[in-house]
Protein backbone atom coordinates (compact mmCIF):
# COMPACT_ATOMS: atom_id res chain seq x y z
CA UNK A 1 0.00 0.00 0.00
CA UNK A 2 2.86 2.43 0.71
CA UNK A 3 4.96 1.49 -2.32
CA UNK A 4 5.21 4.13 -5.04
CA UNK A 5 4.37 2.76 -8.50
CA UNK A 6 5.33 5.91 -10.35
CA UNK A 7 5.77 9.65 -10.13
CA UNK A 8 3.38 12.24 -11.52
CA UNK A 9 4.25 15.92 -11.93
CA UNK A 10 0.98 17.83 -11.73
CA UNK A 11 -0.57 21.11 -10.63
CA UNK A 12 -3.23 21.38 -7.96
CA UNK A 13 -6.49 22.65 -9.45
CA UNK A 14 -8.66 22.54 -6.32
CA UNK A 15 -8.99 21.27 -2.78
CA UNK A 16 -11.78 18.70 -2.62
CA UNK A 17 -12.45 18.76 1.15
CA UNK A 18 -12.42 21.35 3.89
CA UNK A 19 -11.52 18.98 6.72
CA UNK A 20 -7.80 18.26 6.52
CA UNK A 21 -7.38 16.51 9.85
CA UNK A 22 -9.21 13.45 11.10
CA UNK A 23 -9.14 11.39 14.30
CA UNK A 24 -7.31 8.22 13.27
CA UNK A 25 -6.98 4.76 14.75
CA UNK A 26 -3.39 4.12 15.83
CA UNK A 27 -3.70 0.49 14.65
CA UNK A 28 -5.29 0.74 11.20
CA UNK A 29 -5.45 4.52 10.45
CA UNK A 30 -9.24 4.39 9.87
CA UNK A 31 -11.38 7.33 10.94
CA UNK A 32 -12.45 7.06 14.57
CA UNK A 33 -15.95 7.64 15.83
CA UNK A 34 -15.65 10.24 18.61
CA UNK A 35 -18.13 11.27 21.25
CA UNK A 36 -17.45 13.66 24.08
CA UNK A 37 -15.57 11.07 26.16
CA UNK A 38 -14.68 7.99 24.09
CA UNK A 39 -13.45 6.94 20.65
CA UNK A 40 -14.18 3.77 18.73
CA UNK A 41 -12.71 2.32 15.53
CA UNK A 42 -15.36 0.53 13.50
CA UNK A 43 -12.73 -1.29 11.42
CA UNK A 44 -10.53 -2.93 14.08
CA UNK A 45 -12.54 -2.37 17.28
CA UNK A 46 -9.93 -0.21 19.04
CA UNK A 47 -11.42 1.98 21.79
CA UNK A 48 -10.17 4.59 24.22
CA UNK A 49 -10.70 7.98 25.76
CA UNK A 50 -11.45 10.81 23.32
CA UNK A 51 -8.66 12.96 24.79
CA UNK A 52 -6.15 10.27 23.72
CA UNK A 53 -7.26 10.11 20.07
CA UNK A 54 -4.51 10.60 17.46
CA UNK A 55 -4.97 12.77 14.38
CA UNK A 56 -3.72 12.45 10.79
CA UNK A 57 -3.76 14.64 7.72
CA UNK A 58 -6.05 13.78 4.81
CA UNK A 59 -5.96 16.18 1.87
CA UNK A 60 -8.09 15.41 -1.19
CA UNK A 61 -6.99 17.26 -4.31
CA UNK A 62 -7.97 17.62 -7.93
CA UNK A 63 -4.74 17.77 -9.94
CA UNK A 64 -3.86 18.10 -13.61
CA UNK A 65 -0.83 17.16 -15.66
CA UNK A 66 -0.47 18.21 -19.30
CA UNK A 67 -3.11 15.71 -20.49
CA UNK A 68 -5.43 14.55 -17.70
CA UNK A 69 -7.27 15.44 -14.50
CA UNK A 70 -6.93 13.25 -11.42
CA UNK A 71 -8.53 13.06 -7.99
CA UNK A 72 -5.98 12.05 -5.37
CA UNK A 73 -5.82 11.92 -1.60
CA UNK A 74 -2.62 12.57 0.33
CA UNK A 75 -2.45 11.10 3.84
CA UNK A 76 -0.25 11.32 6.87
CA UNK A 77 3.03 12.85 7.88
CA UNK A 78 4.20 13.68 4.34
CA UNK A 79 2.04 16.80 4.78
CA UNK A 80 3.83 17.91 7.98
CA UNK A 81 6.33 20.14 6.10
CA UNK A 82 3.49 21.94 4.28
CA UNK A 83 1.50 22.63 7.43
CA UNK A 84 4.58 23.25 9.56
CA UNK A 85 3.34 20.98 12.35
CA UNK A 86 2.03 17.47 12.81
CA UNK A 87 -1.71 16.88 12.43
CA UNK A 88 -1.82 16.18 16.17
CA UNK A 89 -0.34 19.61 16.99
CA UNK A 90 -2.47 21.47 14.44
CA UNK A 91 -5.60 19.89 15.93
CA UNK A 92 -4.45 21.00 19.40
CA UNK A 93 -3.82 24.57 18.14
CA UNK A 94 -7.28 24.68 16.54
CA UNK A 95 -8.95 23.44 19.73
CA UNK A 96 -7.03 25.93 21.88
CA UNK A 97 -7.87 28.79 19.52
CA UNK A 98 -11.56 27.88 19.48
CA UNK A 99 -11.67 27.67 23.28
CA UNK A 100 -9.98 31.06 23.66
CA UNK A 101 -12.12 32.80 21.05
CA UNK A 102 -15.47 31.19 21.90
CA UNK A 103 -17.93 29.19 19.80
CA UNK A 104 -18.94 32.10 17.55
CA UNK A 105 -15.46 32.20 15.99
CA UNK A 106 -15.23 28.48 15.14
CA UNK A 107 -16.54 29.02 11.61
CA UNK A 108 -14.16 31.89 10.93
CA UNK A 109 -11.12 29.88 12.07
CA UNK A 110 -12.18 26.97 9.84
CA UNK A 111 -12.57 29.34 6.87
CA UNK A 112 -9.17 30.89 7.56
CA UNK A 113 -7.55 27.42 7.58
CA UNK A 114 -9.23 26.47 4.29
CA UNK A 115 -8.05 29.74 2.69
CA UNK A 116 -4.49 29.15 3.92
CA UNK A 117 -4.45 25.60 2.51
CA UNK A 118 -5.87 26.80 -0.82
CA UNK A 119 -3.19 29.50 -1.02
CA UNK A 120 -0.47 26.97 -0.26
CA UNK A 121 -1.58 24.35 -2.79
CA UNK A 122 -3.82 25.67 -5.58
CA UNK A 123 -1.88 26.56 -8.71
CA UNK A 124 1.32 24.99 -7.41
CA UNK A 125 3.08 22.09 -9.13
CA UNK A 126 4.14 19.04 -7.13
CA UNK A 127 5.53 15.59 -7.81
CA UNK A 128 3.14 12.95 -6.51
CA UNK A 129 4.06 9.35 -5.80
CA UNK A 130 1.20 7.23 -7.07
TrEMBL record:
Annotated Gene3D superfamilies: Nucleic acid-binding proteins
GO cellular component: cytoplasm; nucleus
Gene: Ddias
SUPFAM superfamilies in alphabetical order: Nucleic acid-binding proteins (SSF50249)
Protein name according to UniProt: DDIAS protein
Sequence ranges assigned to domain Replication factor A C-terminal in this UniProt record: 9-95
InterPro entries per the UniProt record, alphabetical: DDIAS, NA-bd_OB-fold, Rep_factor-A_C
Pfam families: Rep_fac-A_C
GO biological process: negative regulation of intrinsic apoptotic signaling pathway in response to DNA damage
